[in-house]
Specification:
The structure holds three protein chains of three kinds. By secondary structure, chain A is of the alpha+beta class. Chain A has three helices and six strands. In chain A, the strands form two sheets. Chain A has a three-stranded antiparallel sheet, with helices on one face. Helix content of chain B is 74%, strand content 0%. Chain C is mainly α. Classes of the chains: A alpha+beta, B mainly alpha, C mainly alpha. Chains in contact: A-B, A-C, B-C. At the B-C interface, helix 2, helix 4, helix 7 and helix 9 of B face helix 2, helix 4 and helix 8 of C.
Chain lengths: 179, 192, 204
């Protein structure tokens, strides 16, 4: 079997390789697709459980982009993601609401703020200010709200506060329109 | 509109390809010794990144996603980039021989430049629209060129300086990159 | 057998991809923030390199010269995608922390370089030796850098969730800059200078 450097052989060879590649990948995708789905669900479950410890499952309301954590088939409240530009990049926040839509709490899912300053938004001393706050109180204290900013990290703190408040207002608006 | 400006400067400065995302390091240290070659490489990379983004975005959204073939992303994108580089190289060779000679061997090297493939991935992962992708590509390429030019200026000076023998050449270049990165840290917070 | 050992050992020190050849730096610097990442990336990288070298050396006499590079690229890209999908499905935590640097293995100059310079011209056994050697070379470079960065940047050493030890004093006040990109540049700059000073010449 020689290798002819002219004619169509090179192209045929390449096409053959591409076909084999597509076949191999389709096979791999078929094998891993469910596992990947499961892994993603697992990740979301792990996120939700930090806000709803009694949760044993959840459903996703696609129409409203809402997660509904469940305990024995009963809904424990609602949860959704909020995103806000922080000091250095986007901050992703998980917002949890009680069934009566009061704020249950928040968790920072993703941030790349300055370590030692803005990054402290993930710490409990900051986050524990949020549970139970009324929507109008979700502002920094210097703006009349009830959340103390982190010293030296006003931008990050205010980003979290703004992101949470906007997301709750938007979500309540959206749901209000439904019922 | 402000969103596009955010994306441009975000990619160019805050999330600078080389100093923050570690993409495009090989040409960065290989080519940054002289201002002329740095400029050529930067422009070439900018060109390829923008064209690659423009081509891969529609392929992903109109070809791969509808058929559930997102997993073909890596293979398809790299093939597209490799072909693009060939095409661009041939086009430049035919239309502008001086430019071709200036860019020289840098063009084919761009295929293996992690920056190009990296940006095409980022465009997808950040769920950018088509125009956002182009702006991101422009920003990334501009940032890359900027850093390359600054680096080459510094290195030309460094050649005349006298660092400890063990540091001469590449090691001191890395230390320089560290300082450059530190300076760029100051850009954080300009996007609000 | 002698050539197997020779090819194997070469990749570890004399032709070390990171410190001597200065190739594939992008992933090395980007993910070397923790030991877990270093080990994970090294294993993924070596798997791809091994598979790529084996496959390419097997078909090396049948590949038409004109389409050589595209063929190599498709093969490597396929292998990388397989590794990527497998990781996402079976070790999602690692997939998340390595992020897009796994698919970026495809443009890692090391793999294409070995395919072009070695696997396409040598026997399969030697190609395996080469891949293993380079893989180990890459691995220990990654691990060294990650060790330094993690120890100085967080003060602690963790491996796969098991806490190994904490540096006294640093645990509460780590030098966070080592976790940032500029820390990586610093570490590798100093390491390169150190090796140079110890008499190992870098290829420039």
């Amino acid at each position: 079997m020689g290798t002819r450097t002219n004619g169509f052989f090179p192209v045929i060879f390449l096409t053959l390789i591409v076909f084999i590649s597509v076949a191999a990948l389709t096979l791999t995708d078929a094998i891993t697709k469910d596992k990947i789905e499961l892994a993603k669900e697992d990740e979301i479950a792990r996120m939700l459980i930090t806000l709803f410890p009694q949760m044993d499952g959840f459903t996703y309301d696609e129409q409203n982009d809402l997660y509904i954590p469940l305990a024995e088939q009963q809904p424990l409240g609602h949860a959704f993601m909020a995103e806000q530009s922080g000091y250095s990049g986007v901050i992703s926040i998980l917002v949890g609401l009680e069934p009566d839509t009061t704020l249950r709490g928040i968790r920072i899912i993703f941030q790349q703020e300055t370590p030692g300053l803005g990054a402290k938004i993930v710490e409990s001393f900051f986050l524990q200010q949020f549970p139970g706050l009324a929507v109008d109180d979700i502002k920094l204290t210097k703006e009349g709200g009830k959340v103390d900013a982190i010293t030296g990290a006003t931008t990050s703190s205010s980003a979290v506060v703004e992101g949470v408040r906007k997301a709750i207002l938007d979500k309540l608006n959206q749901l209000g329109r439904e019922t | 509109m402000s969103n596009l400006i955010d994306i441009f400067f975000g990619m160019a400065l805050v999330n600078n390809l080389v100093l923050v995302k570690f993409l495009g390091l090989c040409p960065f240290f290989g080519v940054s010794k002289k201002l002329g070659s740095a400029l050529s490489m930067g422009v070439a990379v900018l060109l390829v990144i923008v064209v690659a983004s423009a081509v891969t975005w529609p392929i992903f959204h109109f070809l791969l996603v509808p058929y559930g073939a997102e997993f073909m992303r890596t293979v398809i994108f790299i093939l597209v980039i490799a072909s693009l580089v060939q095409i661009i190289e041939m086009t430049i060779k035919r239309t502008n021989l001086t430019l071709y000679n200036a860019l020289g061997i840098y063009l084919p090297l761009i295929t293996t430049n992690c920056a190009v493939l990296g940006i095409t991935f980022i465009n997808i992962d950040q769920a950018y629209t088509f125009s956002e992708s182009i702006i991101a590509a422009l920003g990334a390429g501009a940032g890359f060129t900027l850093v390359l030019i600054i680096m080459s200026g510094i290195r030309e000076r460094l050649d005349m300086a006298d660092p400890p023998l063990a540091f001469k050449g590449t090691p001191i270049a890395f230390i320089t990159a560290m300082f450059l990165g530190l300076c760029f840290l100051a850009f954080r917070g300009i996007i609000r | 057998m002698h050539s197997f050992t020779k090819n194997f050992l070469r990749g570890i020190i004399r032709s070390n991809p990171t410190f001597i050849l200065l190739l594939g730096l992008c992933p090395t610097l980007a993910v070397s923030t923790s030991l877990d990442n270093a080990v994970g990336m090294s294993v993924a990288f070596t798997c791809v390199l091994l598979a790529s070298n084996i496959i390419i050396s097997l078909i090396r006499n049948h590949v038409p010269v004109r389409v050589r590079i595209p063929v190599f690229i498709v093969i490597i890209a396929t292998l990388v995608t397989i590794v990527d999908l497998m990781l996402q499905g079976f070790i999602p935590a690692l997939s998340k922390s390595l992020g897009m640097y796994i698919p970026l293995i495809v443009v890692n100059c090391i793999i294409l370089g070995r395919a072009e310079a070695f696997a396409s011209k040598n026997s399969t056994t030697n190609s395996i030796a080469d891949a293993l050697g380079i893989g180990i070379g890459f691995a220990w470079a990654m691990i060294l850098i990650s060790l330094i960065r993690q120890l100085l940047g967080t003060g602690k050493l963790d491996l796969f969730g098991r806490h190994l030890f904490t540096v006294p004093g640093l645990g509460d006040n780590p030098v966070a800059i080592f976790l940032l990109p500029m820390g990586a540049f610093f570490v590798i700059g100093v390491l390169l200078a150190l090796f140079r000073w110890m008499g190992v010449s870098t290829g420039e």
